Amino acid sequence: MRNVVVVGYGMAGARLADEIRRRDPKAERVAVTVLGDEAHHAYNRVLLSSVVAGSLTTDAVRLHDDDWAARHHVELRLGEPVTKIDRTRRVVHVGETEVPYDALVLATGSRSWVPPTEGLLDGNGGLAPGAVAFRSLDDCARIVGHAAPGTPVAVLGGGLLGLEAARGLAGRGCLVTVVHPVGHLMERQLDAGAGRVLAKSLRDLGIEFRLNALATRYAPGEGLELGDGTHVPADLVVVSAGVRAETSLAEQAGLAVDRGVLVDDALRTSDPRVHAIGDCAQHVGTVAGLVQPAWDQAAVLADRLTGAAPAARYAGTTVVTRLKARDIDLAALGDVHVEVDSPDAEVLCFQDPARGRYAKLVLRDDKVTGAIVLGAPDAAAAITQLYDRGLPAPTDRLALLLGRALPAETTASPADLPASAVVCRCNTVSKGQLVGAWRAGATTVSAIAEATRASTGCGGCKDAVCGIVDWLAASQPQPA
């Protein structure tokens, strides 16, 4: 039997263990040991903003229950960080013990990056009192503990996670100011026009912004001083200024590292017995940073480690970024930083700031290669399906931007949706798979989620999954 050791029990490591057991349910081919440095069972980091907002409990974001490891023949060790990898002897050090491996998988994720703001760190390298990162379940507990109504809060970072934290805290009645060093929000995923409309929509929800602003000094209990000499009062500072791949173990072990642990299409590092997946891995020059690539990588690696598909290769993942913030519907995908007058692309743009709507569509050879859709969920659904499936865009581009030209794959009725249509992007679950699971006995949304994992990623497909379950219950004979 082959001994696989997974270092990291976050979303990538937990998914890999699940995928291995799907292929080898009785542990006849592969023994799995998972080493987690947190004391918690695996949880969905994508949904942490909902925990901050109070719309989900900590139990609701758990990926595994307390009995998961025993049921699935997995040796799980919590709260025991790995301190060293010995590649010569093929063991990892956990405290005073050694864990041998035949194949080692690094799923160590990423860590919050702390900007060089004076006073933000204490003398021991941790965050100063009143400053909290936004990365883990424990971070959420600390944030919520400070988040009484009326509390002035500063969020450092106007990217995806920072805005989700800001919206959650504003929903709790906090007085939130976002400090961002760039001229518009979410600059990696949005152009300037979309960033401006998003900022207006969030201002209407009570969030203030200081853009093109650098925090130069933090004083606990007082707040932030900015580079222009102004002051942002804050009893709490939430640090969400980006992440860095956690590569320290790999570097110590002498593995090839750039911005992440370098891997090939087989997800092997420079040592073929050591693999890396998720946020810590760098494949074809890109660190993943989102959940869908991590889970696609887990499926490929499970195929290889169990022998289910030894030739499996990871070819990359097309991702759609969604802002999970109440009252804001935003999707961004592909190459959005293309000018309207670009000679090699067809670019359309629609703006309606007063109503919080913005849409940009980038097409090449009639195919969607990039899009930003804010405040138009029907258009976002249609464009995402076209992007996923590589389908030609309708000739009426404006109707598509406004959500009025929906291809068959995005029709509102579950009955008309083709079986091949992807409902859950995070887990690549089609309508046909949902119907198959329902007919096999998974007749509730929770049972469907357990059987297929649909709705367990970003949560954006939950309404669609509910609609399909309701349609099946009303129109199909109940399974025996």
TrEMBL record:
Its cofactor is siroheme; [4Fe-4S] cluster; FAD. One of its GO terms (molecular function) is oxidoreductase activity. Residues 3-298 form the FAD/NAD(P)-binding domain. Pathway: Nitrogen metabolism; nitrate reduction (assimilation). Residues 422-469 form the BFD-like [2Fe-2S]-binding domain. The keyword Iron-sulfur applies. The keyword Cytoplasm does not apply. Coiled coil: none annotated. Belongs to the nitrite and sulfite reductase 4Fe-4S domain family. This is NAD(P)/FAD-dependent oxidoreductase. It comes from Saccharothrix syringae (Nocardiopsis syringae).
